[in-house]
Amino acid sequence: MDNNYGAFIAPELEVSGSRQGELKGLRFAVKDVFAVAGHSSSAGNPAWLRSHRPSAAHAAAVVKLLEAGASLCGAAHTDELMYSLGGENAHYGTPVNPRGAGRIPGGSSSGSAVAVASGAVDFALGTDTGGSVRVPSAYCGVYGFRPTHGAAAMEGVIPLAPGFDTVGWMADSLELLEVVGRVLLDAGGMASEQADVTDAGGVSLSLSGITSGSGSGAAPAEDRMSRLYLPADCWALAEPSSAACLKRELSRLQATADETIENVVSAEGLKSWMDVFRELQASEIWTTHGEWIRQEQPEFGPDIAARFSWAASIAGQDHSRAAALRSEIAGRLRQLLGEDRCLVIPTVPGPAPLLGGDLQQLERNRSGAMMLSCIAGLAGLPQITLPVEGPEGLPLGLSVIGGHGQDLRLLSWVRSAWY
Q1: Nearest to residue 404, comparing CAs of 344, 328, 336?
Q2: Residue in 41, 71, 118, 132 annotated catalytic
Q3: How many angstroms separate the Cα of 232 from the Cα of each of 166, 238, 249?
Q4: Is 242 noted as a catalytic residue in this protein?
Q5: The one catalytic residue among 31, 118, 206, 412
Q6: Considering 71, 108, 206, 327, which one is annotated as catalytic?
Q7: Do residues 113 and 74 make contact, with C-beta atoms less than 8 angstroms apart?
Q8: What is the pLDDT of residues 379-409, one digit of tens each?
Q9: pTM exceeds 0.85 for this model
Q10: Which of 122, 199, 309, 360 could link 163 by a cystine bridge, Cβ 3.0 to 4.6 Å?
Q11: Considering only CA atoms, which of 74, 128, 91, 75 is closest in space to residue 106?
Q12: Nearest to residue 23, comparing CAs of 147, 141, 184, 137?
């Protein structure tokens, strides 16, 4: 494997795919949180690697891709326990952003994005809880997709916050992004239309009565959207020069939609939405990993350690108000988008920050990215990020968020509209 950009923690890991299928002859990498038989996943931390045995079987998503003819070529780096959007790992180093010299690749699926951007593989699997596929895809200038929550099988994937975790994937073409989606989403895997989501902390997030659409496995009704929403509160988060570059590309999407409407997506403010997301996510994270942290006492990088410390500090608190607001937000967004409407927003505020930047600056950048990425996360919606050339030729991301369960419709429409 070509590991010149440091994408891989295990470049030697190879599993041949079947001799037939939609992905025959293509190569893919996996973020080092997906189970591969005989391989020990690191989850980005040496203590995790030491304390866990090799996997006995492949993750469900890996099995689907192998059966579709693709061959697995390498396990890619991740941020520590997937709890970052930066891509800088204190133990294993930082993959090199091939399209942003001297800049971070984004995380936590940093290695997966770099593997695709460098041409080492055709596509890659990542995970996305709070933006971990969408952010590195934008920073590295590749296409990335986060599906409807529950639409792609998570079996055999190390969890972070199960109420938000999704499998995601990246590719250097929209055609391939869609084909991979048809493989991974083929069985549907959708939650019911009247699902009650319970987070790892035991808080019930009632989403009853919210229409979820026709299901991710269903063929799209047509390659058209009736309405595109451009939320002013989201666009206000983009750096002015970046917003100008992104808006120049909007016409490509508007040409195949009936109308475009400017609106405000968050009555409470996106900062409030981010705070709800962070609180519920942290509660789930500590429930998921707190006992392991207490037992193993792992060494974390400073930023990761601070996040786990905060997650521990709110463990056991009453999160019912945050859970109730999440349920309300999800209901509003799902009704707003229905089956054939979309939000179009910046994926991130601007180009990738410089490597080795000030921690406070990186945290401010992370907050801006999270305010944008928490929208799909809170409502469990599918989101695609499209590479756009930004200031000084640096990559940016333009995102389209579709209706709940409309994954294949979103992929198909964007593919036809973008070219």
Answers
A1: 336
A2: 132
A3: 27, 10, 17
A4: no
A5: 31
A6: 108
A7: no
A8: 999 999 999 999 999 999 999 999 999 999 9
A9: yes
A10: 199
A11: 128
A12: 184
